[in-house]
Amino acid sequence: METKNAELVFIPSPGLGHVVSTVEMAKLLLHRDGRLFITVLIMKRPTDPSVDNYTQPISSISRLRFINLPTQDHTSSTEVLDFIDNQTTHIREIVSNLIKQPSLPGSQLAGLVFDMFCAKFIQIADEFNLPAYAFFTCGAAGLGLIYHLVWLGFEQNEELAKCKSSDVELSIPCFSNPVPSKVLPHVSTVLLSCFKRLTETKGIMVNTFYELESYAIQSLLSDSKNPKVYPVGVFGQSKHRKRAQTKGRLFSCALGLWGSFEEAQVKEIALALENSRSRFLWSLRKGGLQFPTKYQDFNEVLPEGFLERTKRIGKVIGWAPQVAVLSHPAVGGFVSHCGWNSTLESVWYGVPMATFPQYAEQQLNAFLLVKELGMAEAIRIDYKKDFEGDSPPEIVGGEEIEAAPRRLMAEEGGSGVRQKVKEMRNKSRMALLEGGSSYNAQSFFIEDVMKNIA
């Protein structure tokens, strides 16, 4: 009997974080099953070279193809849905052509897989009678929050703006603790309408693993109204060298692809690093509404004499190869913006975090890590960067910044944050082994896809 091959089209949102998560998931599926071929449609901004820098070195991987959609520019995250919407005609044409002539001879298009901001493309799947799946690039608790907000907005007709009052705590099914409204991401009516379409998919792969978010995953699985859930992560880390088990003494400070601070905040971070007397590596970049850029001279923003006084214990750089840093045995802690990719990388390498969220769902991730999982120390949980400049920036003092890393680095014994992170590091690896939770979730997804062409 002839073996059938299946092609999937992955559609990540623009931005390196979404692209990396999606492509690493695609690579893992290709490794798991030789009957799959995956085409990834790439949306990118002309001012952001990071996506090309990531995809070009891996463009020759067998059974993986990238198609670059026409470039367009936008200056604010508030326009991301318009940015995505403008690609509808191009995506429809590509899907139509793949149905007529699949990328791999003898294969059949078996479905579209899009991330949470691209959920409107379910209409294209419907037009061509194709199964639609989502790949949720955040965690299971984040997906549970979206379901809850959709329920509040569309079934309970509640004004979501009321939920943003700073003194309100909410009961959300995927969280065991009440969630302060101040850690919720801003979700507009338009964005909520986009997220609502996730419930129309055949299934959702979630970038997490069962042992990390067992409470949230059980909550999602218990609701039969929701699409199937496949907790398929973590992935993409196995090619990097194994981290030694010794306790590192160096602290890394990095705030993600879009992370940056006002000059006054930079000086407070510098004060904290200098006073801590800990060894450090600080990824510092100039921000704004455009893609962050490097400083020509760090002295223009750092306190006078800082680089000279700390040259024996620390180093300030621009962009940092984060995985290479976290995998180094010298690194014992990580001041993180709590982006979900960074969170999973920290877990994979067993590096405990001090939380300093900035935007999107990062405050929710910080709450999850500190309050739900006990796997991080808080510099702040609810800090938010105002990209629009509507209010004066909040400045967190150096003493407060210094305290959380000190607690992490001073921790000894077999309890507390460091021990929990170490235990979860081991569980993340077990999850990917044959018979592990993520391995099984990937198998269930592949089996479901193959049934589409049976």
From TrEMBL:
Q: Which PROSITE patterns match?
A: UDPGT
A GO term, aspect molecular function: UDP-glucosyltransferase activity
Q: Name the Pfam families on file.
A: UDPGT
Entries under SUPFAM superfamilies matching the protein: UDP-Glycosyltransferase/glycogen phosphorylase
Q: Which family does it belong to?
A: Belongs to the UDP-glycosyltransferase family.
Q: Which CDD domains match?
A: GT1_Gtf-like
Protein name per its UniProtKB record: Glycosyltransferase
